[in-house]
Amino acid sequence: MVRSLVLFLVCAASSLAAQSRVDLLKQVADHYNNSDSFSVKGTASALMPGSSWRVTYDFDTEGAQPAFLPLDLRKPSIQVLSQMGNMKQALAVPGTTDPLPQKFTVQLLPLGQYNAIAMKLTDAQKIGAESVTVDGRSYSCEIIDATYDYSPAFKPNSAIEHKRFWIDPATLIVLRETRSMPDHPGSEWTGTVTSFSFNLPPSETILKALARFATLPKDRPEWVGRSLPDLALAQLSGPQIKLATLKGKPVLLDFWGSYCAPCNRTTLHAQELQQRYKSSALIVLTFTQDTAADARAWTGYNHVTLPVLLDPDGTAFKALDIQGVPVAILVGADGKIVHYWVGLDDLASMDSSIAEILSAHAAATSKSRE
């Protein structure tokens, strides 16, 4: 009985300790999110796998509340921008003679976004303590091992990630972090904060960047009038489809990715249009660079019944200059592009254009039969 009670108390204490570290990360997130603004600057470094070379880059992350931004740049909540640059390579161990690895590519991570430190968090444990000095001041940090579940709903337990953070509980400031390198499993980035600030006016850098994002086009008018490329792609289920054979009917091309949160809404809207105009001549096709397995899982989970064209090599994505998803392209019966939407924030615009082209197509078809 005593042994059982002791075991219960140990387990309960362990659970409370874990919960307290989860709460700590939530408090850190609140600290950054509730500040009028925050700025985090630092340097990230990682060893190049299989060599004695180290790669470094600088990161600069800023966040600003709506009230701290000009009226034309405001959004409902805090806006956060990370910039990375100044990448360098150097020998990690002086005196070694390893040649610099050729064709070595790395994905730079947007470190310093500590307002999001509690998003997708499932567990957090204290694994040590260390003093970290920034700008001549020493901070007594807890080293926290945090577990995150970034798995999409259609593919549970497929994207579990561990990160470590050096956090000063007294100030709720993060001063160091480590994260796995997405393109080099087993290696990791270490981001060291070199300066930080709170509640200062946003810099010109973030203001200019937000202004640039606010004016990004929502469509690609330069593509209007171009012919649809003559491509042939395999279907997820069904025979290969040659785009050239679609000439003679209006076609809506929907580009998506399973990693893209808005794509669920836009692809299902494309499916709704296909059902709405079932009796018309509209053809709706979807394109993805996902693997067949992921595409099948995603479409099954989201009840997508549209034809799915697989583009693992990005042939169609490159030919049509798809720089991100979601994207929708409307092609006329003559095989020429009528509209090219990016982001699809305004689905009503798509609906209006499709209704217009289908009406024109029906009129032309009726006239040709007279």
Instruction: Please identify, by name, the CATH architecture of the largest domain.
Output: Clam
- Spatial order of strands in the largest sheet: 3-2-1-8-7-6-5-4
**Contiguous runs where pLDDT drops below 50 for at least 5 residues:** 5-16
The Rg value, from CA coordinates, equals 26 Å
> Tell me, what's the shape?
elongated
* Percentage beta strand: 25-35%
| CATH level 3 topology of the largest domain | outer membrane lipoprotein receptor (LolB), chain A
Distance between the termini: 94 Å
Biggest beta-sheet profile:
8 strands, antiparallel
User: How many distinct helices?
Assistant: 6
- Total number of beta strands: 15
Average per-residue pLDDT, rounded, comes to 91
